[in-house]
Amino acid sequence: MHKEDFVAIQKTLVDICRLLPETKVPELVVSLVALAVLIVVKEVNACYRQKLPLPIPIELIVIIAATIITHFCGLPDKYSIDVVGEIPSGLKAPRAPDVTLFSEVIGDAFAVAIVGYAINISLGKTFALKHGYKVDSNQELVALGLSNTVGGFFQCYSVTSSLSRSLVQESTGGKTQVAGLISSVIVLITILKIGSLFEDLPKAVLSTIVFVNLKGMFKQFMDVPMLWKTNKVDLLVWLVTFMSTILLNLDLGLAVSIGFSMLTVIFRTQLPRYSILGRVSDTDLYLDTETYKEAKEIPGLKIFRSSTTIYYTNAEMYLEALQEKSGIDIGKLLMAKKKHDAKLKRKQEKAKKKAKKEAKSQIKTVSQLSNGTFTSRESEMNKDEVYEGQRGHSLGNGVALNLKQTSTYGLSQGQVNLAFQNDMSDSDSETGCVKTITTVSLQGDEEMEKVHTLRTHSIILDISTTGFVDTVTVKTLKNIFRDFGEIDIDIYLAGCQACIIEQLETAGFFSESIPKSRLFVTVHDAVLHILQRLEQTDFILNVPCTTKM
């Protein structure tokens, strides 16, 4: 694209303003008369369209009348009114395109093709929405390609929809392919035989006809107040498209508007709504607890959902929102767990060394008291006994392990969906075992005690809104399973679509640590599975699972 193309429209606007004092009054009068006639008759057509058998073809009438008046009154000679002039007749003989020009026009040809297709499909969808039919975009693209291919052998202009002519035809009542066929025949006859009859048609009349039929396009400015009230992002796209097309020419403006609209899509995915779901009593519905007061969280269980697809641009935000909504800071808890393990190990080693030291001292004392009366074998036995006794005493004073087990009662209602329960050898499978929660009582380990204070033992990730997964998504989910697993919190996936499962399998997501038994078709199935596995009775679901695969 040349530098002049960037300022072509600006120059046009400047020239219009600069040449306003030089306006030709006769042509202005012709335009105003044609404008008044067109507007009045079109309003009559709109008001009496149910009574009129056919709309009044005012455009055709104005063209014929203006041509006759201009010819017989000699307006071009008397008032210097610009007319269409000579119209070439006949068709050129077909010939093969000049292939030597391909390298010079390939860039512009690509831009023309994109802009032409965009205009064609936008007009088609506009009229389809207005008259209630569908437009096949692939079919339109094939039609444009074939038309331009054939037209290339006849030295034709590039083929696309004409905004002005399409609006004129639509405003005169043309709605089917018959109207297009008749228009094509009339254009062909005009080119071959009767083109010379319209040589005296004033250009001002043609411009007025196009201007009047653009009324529908000008009405789109009325969308601005509506978009301001309903969706400011769409309003911004509208304004950027309008300004870029005006200031940067049509092809470059279209490229800018497409790029900007794609940025808005990416921007919207960066601001999804994250929520914790709760169950509505006596139903299998799980809704946002912040929006619906009837939705109550299940004790010890967090159900987390994102309103958009998880992919590389928002995967990190997803993990941060999960920690924030669940109230579990993985970084702090993992650090606290490492400190706790290191502290426990140091105490055990210290106790072991102390026990050995005391055992040696005790053995030495016993040996001195015995004055050699014990045999070497008995001395060794006494040594072991003293060591074991001292070790037990030391551990008893040093570290206390308190195991707390949940109550074991079966669910009275509900069935667990075994859609993905194939890995029965996994530790999370249905073995009848009861999940135990181990509490290590060590002074100063406040972060570890916080985990058990929260009593969150399971988290369900509702990914029903996810349409695809990429490499970053798979890594993020693996990290979630690993990190939460290290602090004894089980992770489950619910709402998995078949295509998502296939993509996860292809990416190597499933393993011994992440079996398919962690997948569930619905959130309700996952909840039933967790509660039955824990055999809790303080929260019983009265809605059975009916989902089958």
UniProtKB/TrEMBL annotation:
<keyword id="KW-1133">Transmembrane helix</keyword>
<feature type="compositionally biased region" description="Basic and acidic residues">
    <location>
        <begin position="377"/>
        <end position="389"/>
    </location>
</feature>
<feature type="transmembrane region" description="Helical">
    <location>
        <begin position="235"/>
        <end position="267"/>
    </location>
</feature>
<feature type="transmembrane region" description="Helical">
    <location>
        <begin position="101"/>
        <end position="123"/>
    </location>
</feature>
<protein>
    <submittedName>
        <fullName>Solute carrier family 26 member 6-like</fullName>
    </submittedName>
</protein>
<feature type="domain" description="STAS">
    <location>
        <begin position="291"/>
        <end position="530"/>
    </location>
</feature>
<dbReference type="InterPro" id="IPR002645">
    <property type="entry name" value="STAS_dom"/>
</dbReference>
<feature type="compositionally biased region" description="Basic residues">
    <location>
        <begin position="345"/>
        <end position="357"/>
    </location>
</feature>
<feature type="transmembrane region" description="Helical">
    <location>
        <begin position="60"/>
        <end position="81"/>
    </location>
</feature>
<feature type="region of interest" description="Disordered">
    <location>
        <begin position="369"/>
        <end position="389"/>
    </location>
</feature>
<dbReference type="Pfam" id="PF00916">
    <property type="entry name" value="Sulfate_transp"/>
</dbReference>
<dbReference type="InterPro" id="IPR036513">
    <property type="entry name" value="STAS_dom_sf"/>
</dbReference>
<feature type="region of interest" description="Disordered">
    <location>
        <begin position="345"/>
        <end position="364"/>
    </location>
</feature>
<feature type="transmembrane region" description="Helical">
    <location>
        <begin position="178"/>
        <end position="198"/>
    </location>
</feature>
<dbReference type="GO" id="GO:0016020">
    <property type="term" value="C:membrane"/>
</dbReference>
<dbReference type="GO" id="GO:0055085">
    <property type="term" value="P:transmembrane transport"/>
</dbReference>
<keyword id="KW-0472">Membrane</keyword>
<dbReference type="InterPro" id="IPR011547">
    <property type="entry name" value="SLC26A/SulP_dom"/>
</dbReference>
<keyword id="KW-0812">Transmembrane</keyword>
<dbReference type="InterPro" id="IPR001902">
    <property type="entry name" value="SLC26A/SulP_fam"/>
</dbReference>
<dbReference type="Pfam" id="PF01740">
    <property type="entry name" value="STAS"/>
</dbReference>
